[in-house]
Amino acid sequence: RKEVEQDPGPFNVPEGATVAFNCTYSNSASQSFFWYRQDCRKEPKLLMSVYSSGNEDGRFTAQLNRASQYISLLIRDSKLSDSATYLCVVNAGNQFYFGTGTSLTVIP
Amino acid sequence: DAGVIQSPRHEVTEMGQEVTLRCKPISGHNSLFWYRQTMMRGLELLIYFNNNVPIDDSGMPEDRFSAKMPNASFSTLKIQPSEPRDSAVYFCASSFASGAYEQYFGPGTRLTVT
Questions:
Q1: Chain B contact set for A43 (CB, 8 A)
Q2: Smallest Cβ distance to A31: which of B33, B100, B103?
Q3: pLDDT value at position B98?
């Protein structure tokens, strides 16, 4: 079983839509959680950390559910510039585990 | 502020040749990670260093791959001999410390082995 699993998509949504991604992890001892964004042919970049109480950054909301071992990312009012691959990342001890990414395309 | 620097950005080589990828982490970061990314397998951690010491190399595919970090500001990933299946994008990332801190990625080296 993979440490981190994501629905690869693709998600194709119209501008202005709300879209949500989920990511499940297998190690209950995982300590830190992140969402990264990767544009085509570019490096992954940190989008936001995920805190236990949930956190929001503008149109982006991240949540953590430790009981069910998943994290989520909600994007409201999607913009064309949100088109990218979103990677969830889970840290357990000294290990970082990346999901394979969820592809999002926002359509005009 | 300089980010993680990688060189070369692109490398095309023939099967059997030695390939050396280079990375300069962000100053002050003491953890360095080497990743490989392909369409089929996604992002895979190859090896990571903490304070210049290799901590976990379980992701290194085989003996053809080796990595060094002679000092806090430089690391290399070497493939000898290279094979076509090594074709991928190789990313170097650094962080303040392994564990809870986010990683900052370099732009990657796109390697093609013919």
A1: 91, 105-108
A2: B100
A3: 62
